Amino acid sequence: MKSIKSYLLILSIFTLLTACSSLVPKTEVVATKNYVVLTKNIQQIKPIVLAAKALATEDGKNFGNFKVIICGKTVTDLTDKELITEYVEMAKKNNVTLIACGFSLKKFKVNADNIPKELEVVDNGILYNFQLQKSGYLSIEL
Fold first, then answer.
1. Which range of residues forms the domain containing residue 51?
2. Tens-place pLDDT, residues 37-67
3. What is the pTM assigned to this prediction?
4. Is residue 107 part of a domain?
5. Is residue 57 part of a domain?
6. Does residue 46 lie in a domain region?
């Protein structure tokens, strides 16, 4: 008899807890959306930044970081102040981080001191891209 009373008590408590949990409003967790683009063509920075701007509007408060990694021979163009200034200003205005691949800078003998200070430099752009992907960034290579 005692066992049945204990069973009914446990069942009643479980039913009560289940009923109460359904009364608690459910909150939807929406993750921040972060993006990274790896490009080997400096001319692609403008359409990439325009895509970032559109995604920022689309994602609203869930828009996180947008990074562009520049690698390959195009890093030589980063020293052309007339060419790169427009891209740097456009990226800054749209909260896009421009990053130069240090491996490419070394390979093509570009002194990091000769590129705009607004650009970050990472040791290896490809590795950095993979690391960002592992932390949840959506990625594309152009």
1. 33-141
2. 999 999 999 999 999 999 999 999 999 999 9
3. 0.78
4. yes
5. yes
6. yes
